[in-house]
């Protein structure tokens, strides 16, 4: 097939005409048309190559040939639904179980992280017979109605906060209520959840679930302080609720040292429900909920079938299995650990000469560069962050994006084949751009 | 790859261990393991061939080689998200627009019919600034929390009816409140919606949307009476609401004479929102919402981005385009019309000798066989229907299933390549089984 079928202006014109404008384009002033990709590289219609620092979905690299081969082979053989017995779904569940603590051994396959979080909420409410949810400030758990309700990032701009939703402070040790200088921020932030639970109880309400991304993304690439999750889980369980770890962005080895980001909180911590999505199918719509036998049994006990038309079909599971193989065979966790450490190290080095860099944080290939206008007040450098993103694209053909409540965090969540050289290039370019901006500002 | 990787007992044992039991198996007493499929045929691990009368998802036939080829070619080239410009999404939207009335020209691509219906509900509520929904009795619109709320089929067994949800009678002219002998059932059933709207208004509430499958499936393969939808749309719009046509099961030419089942209601009728899903990607997780410029603009006006990670990606759209090509090139609508008519005709013929067959209804390859214990009282023959399903599988290797509030409707919604001979075979087998059952019952 011809790679480009329409001229770019025509694509843009049709896009405006046919696709809901709520679906936004990157670089909306000058959107990019991508026609080809490989590994960590994107190519536009003129063959210009972009280094991709943000496609966490294309986890093992864009268009990995062994994923395509696995998909095509299974598509040619069979793609039916999970009401028939098939080996792929059970073999895939078995492989996923091996990555998780023993008690997380029951799986539900779905088509998106949003579907996974919606189901997690149903499971939690059914199991606990409670309604209320605690979510972290600035959190985003998906685009479905039920998830907008538990996502402060969305509901504050839309329908507002429901009476059954409660917002706990984001455990951000850079600009949150407890910072690096606190002797035990993990405990202190966990205690805010404890206090919130007590407040909920005083209202005569009951907690079904605490929902949190294992590393809050939209919140600003946040690393939860040590001890936080285990303590929160203890408080939430005492209140009869369950702990849902949203690993939709962070799972499948992105953090390098562990397969799941929640494992950064130590072996003493295990969630009751884990949701997964984005990287799971390397771009194929595939997501999952893992939970315990007890929670699954409570869900079964309601006597109502859960049927997801496409969820867990043989093709999706073949792709999921192939992704796991590539993560192992290409040692992508090892790569994430090495390259992520190098990237963080290089960014930390240039921090000494750029007052704009307030903090460098991250783990594995999940890294954030927090920009501030002054380090003392930590005022978010929103505009600077936007200019860095724009100049990296225009001058260096590098795609990064921003996040955080003030869009002041430049984030890195590249395909896991990101190399040492890629890390060096992007830091060198950021260094040059910041130097240049500082010179023209002074 | 080896077709079977585990012995069947092992697959079953792992399925029980790893997959939530709410995800049920067909023929749960003796589940079938399917390892291969082609066209309208499924093959088990021993090579036994089943005639598939129910896989409406595998619309153009199981494992159609041109769908696999399109998927593999695009997977090898690029699979990124809709924040980058790409030709496939706009070309696909353009092709879909050509099948719809002119005013339905804005598209949102998602991953499942459930995601589509959830978004439709958001669009309706945002546009109308009203909350309430009218749904048909026994309706099912998806597995998400928001959709369980508007699906009497589910909420009656689960959370119960919410105050913002109102249930209109199912316009079933066989066993509903107005039947074949009524001079104008379309108008009469539409008036029940009018009455319901007045009741809602008396409560001081306002209608955002009327949701209905264009041919209610779980309700029992129901054909809406002529004039119903246009009248309902008139009443709903007068109340400031919108008409959502759920075409998740019925779209893409299944009815033969038209591309969309709502078009059976005549040219005077056009919904405000159409949702589509199951057959759209021939098994690939692909779904969509189509709506008007006005509704899309109201959604954009809230200022909040709608981002669906996998929705509208280049691979999903390449598959969607390939499905449209096969429907056209293989004249599957023509086939659905011819074979569906033949199937209905043959079933009607055997109705004369089987008192158990209360009604044969359907259009194109969407056909239902309503079984009753006596024709006068139309008592649902639930057990007979279950036995027919079981015997067709065991004696004839034919897969059908049941639906309807009493599971008394044997339903046919096969891949669209279903042949005249397939129709003849299945009717001949049903004839034999019913004859045999009648003999042993007498």
TrEMBL record, chains A, B:
GO cellular component labels: mitochondrion
UniProt keyword Nucleus, yes or no: no
Keyword Lyase part of the UniProt annotation: yes
GO molecular function: lyase activity; pyridoxal phosphate binding; transaminase activity
Keywords per UniProt: Lyase, Pyridoxal phosphate
One Pfam family of this chain: Aminotran_3
InterPro entries cross-referenced by the UniProt entry: Aminotrans_3, Aminotrans_3_PPA_site, PyrdxlP-dep_Trfase, PyrdxlP-dep_Trfase_major, PyrdxlP-dep_Trfase_small
Necessary cofactors: pyridoxal 5'-phosphate
UniProt-listed SUPFAM superfamilies: PLP-dependent transferases (SSF53383)
Family recorded in the similarity comment: Belongs to the class-III pyridoxal-phosphate-dependent aminotransferase family.
Protein name: 5-phosphohydroxy-L-lysine phospho-lyase
